[in-house]
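User: Please predict the structure of the protein below. I'd like the answer in structure-token form so I can feed it into my own downstream comparison script.

Assistant: Understood. Taking the following sequence of 144 residues as input:
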Amino acid sequence: MSNVIVVGYDDSPSSQRAVEFAKGLAKEAGASLVIAHVLDWSPYSFLTPTELEERHKRRKEELSRAEDALIKPVVESLAAEGIEVDSVIRYGKIADTLCEIATEKDAQQLIIGRIGEDGVIARFFGSVAGAVAMSSPVPCTIIP
């Protein structure tokens, strides 16, 4: 296993705390960070070829906006502090995709912030943090 830490990031306060926590770990252990952002996406089964083409165009635009607005500033800030950092932006089910990224990057740890629904909604549908904790291929740290 490599010395890589994957951090789920969506610019929420808890994901910002997750980056700060991971930064401290990376400095102590000489690890590199992978900042991962997942755009939630579900496929539609009955789209015309024209609709599929338009949707593909919108996906590319959303990925570009996420890179510029969310990921690039964090990556530049971490790199300026001397931390080796990479980024990944994908569409998919958030928990599943973060776990896939951790596996692909041969991560030693996955760090995410705990955000989202509380109470009844989380009990019925689950939470991203809970799903990651249950399915992560590596140790997972959830930051409040």
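That's the full token string. The CA atoms of residues 48 and 54 lie 10 Å apart.
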